[in-house]
UniProtKB/TrEMBL annotation:
The lineage of its organism: Bacteria, Pseudomonadati, Pseudomonadota, Betaproteobacteria, Burkholderiales. It comes from Oxalobacter paraformigenes. InterPro entries: Pept_tRNA_hydro (IPR001328), Pept_tRNA_hydro_CS (IPR018171), Pept_tRNA_hydro_sf (IPR036416). GO terms for biological process: protein quality control for misfolded or incompletely synthesized proteins; rescue of stalled ribosome. The record marks 95 as: Stabilizes the basic form of H active site to accept a proton. This is Peptidyl-tRNA hydrolase. The gene is pth.
Length: 195
């Protein structure tokens, strides 16, 4: 078992590009920048932008659903069925309120933690048994703001938080080759080790 599909979650449209909820898009955009010859194509049958790349010599699909976040399952379910990608071969990258900026955590299956994108993907796949890369954006309470969660995730991070999020994305990118080799324990140990 190894990762064959990497899905970055976000909302389409210029008005959402720099918002916290688009951390998954930021990740796949950075992953793409490290790969040669990646060409995004709009695939209406998947309701997504998709690209194919090679990581460790293996074909890996990259995806940015073009539905809004709470309908991400439409895109993920469609591509998984079409290419016969098992749920445990999927890595979904998303923003995580319960992790501070500067941190990223890997986990397989478990609760969707109230994240509407994850809920919709789990419903579309018929299982919660897929990999998640959780990019910390912090919670409004931890950031000393009284903004409601929905407003907070749809706002641009403060400069220092953006720098911390970018650092976490950079560290997470380094473990992608391990995930695509099926070295999940090694990837988790590497990513979760405090430096």
């Amino acid at each position: 078992m190894s990762i064959r599909l990497i899905v970055g979650l976000g909302n389409p449209g210029a008005e959402y590009e720099q918002t916290r909820h688009n951390a998954g898009f930021w990740f796949v955009d950075n992953l793409e920048n490290g790969s040669s010859g990646v060409r995004w194509q709009k695939e209406s049958k998947f309701s997504a932008l998709v690209a194919k790349t090679k990581i460790n010599g293996a074909d890996v699909w990259l995806m940015k659903p073009q539905t809004f976040m709470n309908r991400s399952g439409l895109a993920v379910g469609a591509i998984a069925r079409f290419f016969k990608i098992a749920s445990d071969e999927i890595l979904v990258v998303h923003d995580e309120l319960d992790i501070l900026p500067g941190n990223a955590k890997l986990k397989r299956s478990g609760s969707t933690g109230g994240h509407n994108g994850l809920k919709d993907i789990a419903a579309a796949l018929g299982t919660q048994d897929f990999w998640r890369l959780r990019i910390g954006i912090g919670h409004p309470r931890s950031q000393n703001t009284k903004a409601p969660v929905i407003d907070y995730v749809l706002q641009r991070p403060r400069r220092e938080d953006q720098d911390s999020i970018d650092d976490a994305i950079g560290r997470a990118l380094q473990v992608v080759p391990m995930l695509c080799r099926g070295e999940f324990d090694k990837a988790m140990k590497e990513l979760h080790t405090v430096r």
